[in-house]
Amino acid sequence: MSNIKITIQYDGTNYHGWQIQPNRRTIQGELTRVLSLLAHHPVTIYGAGRTDAGVHAEGQVANFFTERDGDIQQLRDAINGNLDRDIRVVRAEPASDAFNARRSAIEKIYRYRICKDEVVSPFVYRYVYHYRARLDTDLMRLAASELIGTHDFTAFTVAHADTEDRVRTLTRLAVDESASEIAIIVAGGGFLRYMVRTIVGTLIDVGRGKRTAASVGETLLTRERSSAGPTAPACGLTLVRVDY
Amino acid sequence: MSNIKITIQYDGTNYHGWQIQPNRRTIQGELTRVLSLLAHHPVTIYGAGRTDAGVHAEGQVANFFTERDGDIQQLRDAINGNLDRDIRVVRAEPASDAFNARRSAIEKIYRYRICKDEVVSPFVYRYVYHYRARLDTDLMRLAASELIGTHDFTAFTVAHADTEDRVRTLTRLAVDESASEIAIIVAGGGFLRYMVRTIVGTLIDVGRGKRTAASVGETLLTRERSSAGPTAPACGLTLVRVDY
After folding, report:
1. Opening angle at CA B197, ends B196 and B199, nearest 5
2. B108 and A CB contact within 8 Å
3. Residues near A176 by Cβ (< 8 Å), separated by ≥ 6?
4. What confidence score (pLDDT) does residue A1 get?
5. Does residue A180 belong to the interface with chain B, where contact is any CB pair within 8 Å?
6. How many beta-carbon pairs below 8 A join chains A and B?
7. B86 and A122: CB-CB below 8 Å?
8. Catalytic residue, candidates B11, B52, B152, B162
9. What is the pLDDT averaged over residues B180-189?
């Protein structure tokens, strides 16, 4: 059995997220179907991170074991030939048996795009959250600095989350502004469910003056979901890269 | 009656082109439906150029006369509110009564994108022609220089075209290459049916060594459609801008 690492891009608009589910079109489900078909045996796919319904990926990573031999670029092309055009395996490479896309990951980088234009272009609407009112990015950066580092992020995940350990480390939380967009870059070793989108929703609340930058640090201490801001819409979020 | 100039963007993937047709989803058809609805009277829309089925626009221009008064940005937002997200009116502005989007146009600029990557990203596949074999862009530029200027372009339009005068002026035909794409920029006062895509298909034939650069000038002289190259696929073509 060979362990194969694949790097995947997808437009998540028409998928119910990464994780395989019965009777729903998911990224892991599509890859499982195609890989099992090509390998002539059931294939289990391990993904670096579960993206939610509607979230996109420029560099999702997964691995799987297969008995199929042969040229790995031919395998990549065969997988792509059996997938819809909105999922692509952009790279396939051999990995050591110890490699696991989730457990071996050191850092994941996400980007959240907020479009400020009055009208959103038909070429980008799937990938941005349209927010026309003014956001004060200086205040958003100040609030972001409260979140960088190692904290208990209970307030920034779903209420009553199954995960017991909710301490995570944010290595980067940057707010980049251009004429038509605000991009929020979020990097860390791991994330709780909805954590990136709740951080973004809270920063937006700061940017529009609904809460102070200082209140964001206090929110961490409450460990109450209700003290954080809303979960920002999925469409604006993209998993940019997973580092190993 | 006020004359209104609108600038329109569209992802042409799911449309049967610009021109209104019965029982087919077209850009002009969608705009006619929405504008007539909002104006409470039938509205005729004049477009700068008819784009074919599957062709996109970043800056199509049209005009129409309406009895509706009121704020023009509100009109723009009302139009967009009644259109699917893959068509957007990005600008609406008052025009003089003499303005006609087609007749007043001085120059139209098109871009044709050829993707050279082994795998086409899910974020761009709708907007490029995927061509993996190597193309010699120096030869393509040499061939392009044969076409710039004023010529009878009969060989580069549909056989037995209705248009009697097939003399057109190409002001620019540039071949720009980056690591993953070749972009062919085509500018001129007016174009015959399929002319841009037939020019592109002929330049691709030169780039892949199927014909010489010099043969392209000779093709103009034959005035025979059969002596030009194939019509390149619609998806790679975008109407970038119309200048007045």
Report:
1. 65
2. no
3. A182, A183, A184, A185
4. 85
5. no
6. 50
7. yes
8. B52
9. 97
